[in-house]
Amino acid sequence: MDAVTQGALQAGKAVGGFRIGKEAGEWTATKFHPYLPSETYLTCRFFSARKHGLVDAAVRTSSGSGLDKTAVVALPGGIGTLDEVFELMALIQLDRIGSLRPVPFLLMNYDSFYSKLLDFLHDCENFGTISHGEAASLWKVCNNNTEALTYLSEFYGISH
Fold first, then answer.
1. Reduced to 3 states, what is the DSSP secondary structure of residue 30?
2. Is residue 75 domain-shared with residue 21, that is, in the same domain?
3. Do 24 and 102 fall into the same domain?
4. I want to staple 8 with a disulfide (CB 3.0 to 4.6 A). Which of 13, 76, 82, 118 is the partner?
5. Whole-prediction pTM
6. How far apart are CA 134 and CA 137, in angstroms?
């Protein structure tokens, strides 16, 4: 996440973070980024508020000016990341995200991190619990940055 955050900052884009406070007021082991001011963080009591913020950030609202190049990029992560990934998949499937303007959703499968998850989803297709091709239609799986940049360039019709 550091590279994504620093890249956005270098491009002059707004960057912030969400933190989840524990019931007793103690923080998890997650630290503040050393280069982000603490006032750029929003503290949430529940994870659902963090996901709501993610969804709000993912919705493309500009009226076709060409300036909005919103994308959701899922990097390797833990349980919270998986929760967000599946939430986004469900919302895209239900046309709650991308219904007005498509929003690219990239799953970054660095070093095959998500390969077992992709195998599981393929097994779900074989068992009939999800339709064939359904998961693949909701995101673009990229194995490296070049694939991601190529996909986003094609998606938005820009050169890189």
1. coil
2. no
3. no
4. 13
5. 0.78
6. 5
